[in-house]
Amino acid sequence: MGLKFLDIKKLDLENKVENEYFTKILDTSDEWIKTRTGISSRYFTKMSVAEMAVELAKKLDFDRENIKLVLVASFTSERILPSLAGFINEKLNLNKDCLSADINMACTGFVGAMVLAERFLRDGECALLIAAEKISSVLDFNDRTTAVLFGDGCAGAVVQKNNKLWVSDEKTYGNENALAMEKGNFVEMQGKEVYRFAVDKVPRSIEALFEKLKIEKKDIDYIFAHQANKRILEQVSQKLSLGMDKFKVNVNEYGNTSAASVPILLSENKECLKDGDKLIFSAFGAGLSICSVLMEW
């Protein structure tokens, strides 16, 4: 059991927004944002979520006949019907013998898609996993507690079922208000509650992976965690007694891109990975949910 990444790419978006943009419209400063979040910039786009997802899918290299699953993770899609995954299937003329579905786990979405793909696929079969978020379309730019945190993003991967090392941990704790958005409204977040949840539950989820496999922490090569806030990553690192050198980080440039966070991070660091590396993926989001995976590259 396990997954092999055959290809992983991100979409380069056109509009980089530095912290100074927010200092002109909100009671905030570049120093305030950096100190509390580690974020210096993020990207906003004029593209729709569907346009991003299709463009990204076209960039990926894969054998159409071997794609048995298409999963798209997003909470910001403009589309209600058809699914983004079904839209991609049509636009790329994929194999019709293929399950195509969207999932909405917010920031947990891509790692959740990895878990679903690993359990669904048979040996040698492939899946197309895409995360696409246009969070700028659901932000209240008068609310500094959310406006400065998020960015748009899109990335995806082609994965194949294999028999390498793999173990996962999935948890849903439930909380309808900590991170929420109703149709037609802006995203709302209780920042302190989400922060406390992340620094408590994410280390526990990762520890559960070690316990299941009886692997020592020193054997882990890299950790690809959801890029929500640099302070959260530092707290998780401290609680796990793992140095920050194990954690790949790009929240400073992209902000929180929700489901797109982990695949963007992976796409930017794939060149440093070698066959046999032991990796941890972990993401947390609305729900409140966590998915963590320990796998061999």
TrEMBL record:
Gene3D superfamilies for this protein: 3.40.47.10
Residue stretches making up the Beta-ketoacyl-[acyl-carrier-protein] synthase III N-terminal domain: 102-163
Ranges for domain Beta-ketoacyl-[acyl-carrier-protein] synthase III C-terminal: 211-297
Record's keyword terms, sorted: Acyltransferase, Transferase
SUPFAM superfamilies named in the record: Thiolase-like
GO biological process: fatty acid biosynthetic process; secondary metabolite biosynthetic process
EC number: 2.3.1.41
Superkingdom of the source species: Bacteria
First-tier enzyme category under EC: transferase
Pfam families cross-referenced by the UniProt entry: ACP_syn_III, ACP_syn_III_C
GO molecular function: 3-oxoacyl-[acyl-carrier-protein] synthase activity
Database matches in InterPro entries: ACP_syn_III_C, ACP_syn_III_N, Thiolase-like
Protein name: 3-oxoacyl-[acyl-carrier-protein] synthase III
Encoding gene, per UniProt annotation: fabH
